[in-house]
Fold:
Amino acid sequence: MYRVSVCAAIPPPKQACGGNAKLRYQITSGNTGGVFDVEPEVGAIFIAQPLDYEQNKRYKLHVLASDGKWEDYTTVTVNVVNKNDEAPVFTVNEYYGSVTEELDGSPVFVLQVTASDPDKDADQEALRYSLHGQGAESEFIIDEVTGKIYAQRTLDREERAVWRFVVLATDEGGEGLTGFTDVIINVWDINDNAPIFPCPLSCHGDVSENSVIGTSVMEMTATDLDDSAVGQNAVLSYRIVGILDVTNSKQGGVPAFSEMFSINPTTGTITVGLGGLDREQIESYLLIVEARDGGGMTGTGTATIQVKDVNDHAPRFIDHSCQARISENAEPNAEVLELAAEDRDTGENAQLTFSVVAGDQEQKFYMVSHKQEQHGVLRLKKRLDYERHSEQKFNLTLKVEDLDFSSFLHCMVEVEDYNDHAPVFIPHFLSLAPLPEDVSVGTSVARLVASDSDSGQNRDITYSLSEDSDTEGLFTIDQSGVLSVARPLDREKTAQHQLVVIATDHGIPALTGSATVQLPLLDVNDNGPEFEAAYSPVVFENVAGPQVVRLNQTSTLLRAMDRDSPENGLPFHFAVPPEYRYSNDFYLQDNLNGSATLTALRTFDRERQKEFLLPIVMSDSGHPAKTVTSTLTVTIGDQNDHAHVAGEKHISINSHRGRMPTTVLGKVYAPDPDDWDNKTYVFEGHMPSYFILNKRTGFLIIKENTPPSTYQFQVRVSDGIWPDAISTVTVLVRELRDEAIYNSASLRLA
Structure:
């Protein structure tokens, strides 16, 4: 309540005394709305109702003062001072704006908000605007003076289609009262997204073959992230741009008839476009579908359509004729034959059943069906008897059927005689007169005949010789049973032949019979004498002659032998060719008792000649006599009559990447004309750690993975007679680079 004192404003009346001096005050006019009142006895003006600067800024009050007789008037002017008690008010409670996505050239003006300050005489220019909410000061900004809102970044409607903010308007330069309003900004769509089909690789559908035109197959629907509520950017239309036959996926797709399927351009529903869908021709189709939005952007997807089978084909036997044979000895359940059929359908429509429907009155046969594999096996149900005329041949009618269709095949089954008799020779042993061993190849020796009680091929006979009785194939027998000489005979190898002749019939299984032929051979003088033993005579050097040569460790006699019979053998005669009879080296003496003696006539030097080859002429006592020449090798034995000397050997060996196997490098070199010496080899001085030396042979070995370097060492060589020699060995181990391996070539010398 405002109180205004007006005593000073009202001129006081003349002083009176008593009751005449009691004054009364009253507002007579100017009190619009009755906002003021006055204390009637004291004249204090006070505010009786709230003041409103915006309705009335000044009041002129006419005040009356009266003592009951006299009265006076005065005017009181009350100026109302404005107070900031009204918040700014926006022109509308909710603002709507829009901006197109993907716009460049930021900032982009979106909309302007405006507010006013209801306070009278308020400074409207002192209003300040601010933007609040997700995206404020990042995606969107506001001019605090003008209230203009801008988008300062490129927007993507597919990420966010609507932005909601609160805009505050604050008076007194942003320090006073605040009003607010809501701002809703819609992001306008542009066609920046192509349609996408949801299947990551390929959509799948199926349809039965023979389906009528218009049969629904599958839905091929794409999505478009653009705004479907505004414009045509997300309004899709569909079409099929290609159809491939992908029945054999390994060969890739091949073009198929392009109108076999159709698609609803609005819904994407794929339907059968033509009649005549045949799974047996094309089992799988690959459709390439294009989705186009209203802005012209396209996306493609693939739809794999499997054609489901309908049982519309009858099974057929693959073979158009059928013949089989079975032995009368076959056991029940034995397989007679296997028949395959085909059905162009698939699945359960291609599961086939086989049966015997005619030609088997006594039910000798039955069929086993392998439905999935589409083949059947005809098997024997009861034993057969070839001797019964009715069981020698069967004309069977076989049936194959699926769930709805069937076909038939006539099959002739012939029963074969079982081979139960073996061939027999009469007689089964035959002794022949002696035959000269030089009999001509092809000479007939004997004829043998066997018989067989079976019939047909079971009684047909083939003759042969047991390999065990004729391991070298010296004889042969033809199919009439004639036994002949096939290769030259040699009594010295086999004096008498025991030939086993085999007769084999043609039954299954074949049976055999045999006969033995005994054939002795007569000797012919076809072998000359030969050394009785493998003689290796040795005559040592530096020994004065003459001396009898020892032919082996036990004898000085040269003896011979003859593989012919005794009448074509001893006595033997020995000689040398005429050009050797007067040799200064050796002399051969025929002892006329089947032996001979060899004498060395002089002193020999092994270093000049190590061996002598002597031809020895030997004759037997056959008619006519057989003469042969054999060579006797006489070795000159070594004596240690030369000193060995120091040698030097250089060896190079390659190592690859530090790896090398243990390798024999060769023998330490110590030249010596003698070659039968027993030498010993030891390292002299420093003992190399990467090498091994064989003490007896002198062979040097390098160890595995020896590091690349040059190694030099000495070896002491001793023979126990002559002074020791110190030989030097230098080994170079080289690292072989990869480039040398890659650029190498191999050379082989024969």
Observations:
- The radius of gyration is 66 Å.
- The first strand starts at residue 3 and ends at 5.
- Helices lie at 171-174, 738-742.
